Amino acid sequence: MTVLEQPGSYHPVPPPAWRPRVDPAPLLPDAEPHRVLGTPAAAAADPDLLRRLHAQLVLGRRYNAQATALTKQGRLAVYPSSTGQEACEIAAAAVLEERDWLFPSYRDTLAAVARGLDPVEALTLLRGDRHTGYDARKHRIAPLCTPLATQLPHAVGLAHAARLKGDDVVALAMVGDGGTSEGDFHEALNFAAVWQAPVVFLVQNNGFAISVPLAKQTAAPSLAHKAVGYGMPGRLVDGNDAVAVHEVLGEAVRRARSGGGPTLVEAVTYRMEAHTNADDATRYREDDEVEEWRGHDPIALLEREMRSAGLLDDDTSRSAQEAAEAMASDLRERMNEDPVLDPMDLFAHVYAERTVQLRDQAEQLRAELEAAAEAGEENR
């Protein structure tokens, strides 16, 4: 008989603070990704929504193709294509109200364009011109974020501040599966859940963090399961099913706006093209895998459903393609114009009020520019 088995022995019990603060069961994601297209639930989908999503998906596919072409022409320094992931991009923009904020990652230029941002302005940062390329406050779109996951704490901070001010605002933060391996991801989710901030986290799980497959990043059952550890619901959705993504994100946004707190949504999708134009995806994935995912293309899935419901015919499809071509032509023409750059813009949008150091540096640059201009006039 051990000491603990003796009558009247002391049995240590964890204090009450150890006990779960919430029931974890409702927070767990479903075993399979949520789907609408190809299921009986598709019959209840709003026809107008399907038409809008289709038009935006076709536009988005052409936008990705044109931006990729611009890199080959030297008009863009780099472009991370979201081809294959357009359903996530379009749905993310569609579920937000004008007063809400979008916090994109570097691959989410399409989401910014779908929210109303000028396509050229969306590419300015990737062009290497200056700053963000657009007024973040005007468009309610945070700067396209190149460092992994740093936009997530920013989204939580804005959402928490808006709630403290009494503003009816929701922040939707987008990140890739690779970003979930960053400390910023943990910090953002933890703060969001503790503060019950009105923020939605959308993880686009496209299978790879550049060349690192998901299995080498995490041993979790899914990325959506990570939500439980922070005390928020985790949702798993088919990221190529535009209607399902719109439905899940819409529910999460409404929940956040009504005071229900944050939600982590994992959209299972696939990056059809390389990480960027500088990447060789054939080094870490097989062509057969890519071809298998082509059979689950988000545009094809939606078009199949719409045609079977009598919502899409050849004329409608042609109109969507023509609108996309018109957008691509305008983008191509405007991106082929050399921008007029002002070196003094280096000091704009850094601080609301310039520091002494910035004022000194600005004056030094201005003097150098004036001297160079005078020298140029003398040499004519």
Automatic annotation (TrEMBL):
Q: Where is this region: Disordered?
A: 1-33
Q: Which domain of life is it from?
A: Bacteria
> PANTHER family, from UniProt?
2-OXOISOVALERATE DEHYDROGENASE SUBUNIT ALPHA, MITOCHONDRIAL
Give residue ranges for domain Dehydrogenase E1 component: 60-342
> Which CDD domains did the record assign?
TPP_E1_PDC_ADC_BCADC
Keywords, alphabetical: Coiled coil, Oxidoreductase, Pyruvate, Thiamine pyrophosphate
Whether Iron counts among this entry's keywords is no
Can you name the source organism?
A: Streptomyces meridianus
**Coiled-coil region(s):** 352-379
How is this protein named in the record? Pyruvate dehydrogenase (Acetyl-transferring) E1 component subunit alpha
Q: What Pfam families has UniProt attached to this entry? A: E1_dh
Tell me the cofactors it needs. Answer: thiamine diphosphate
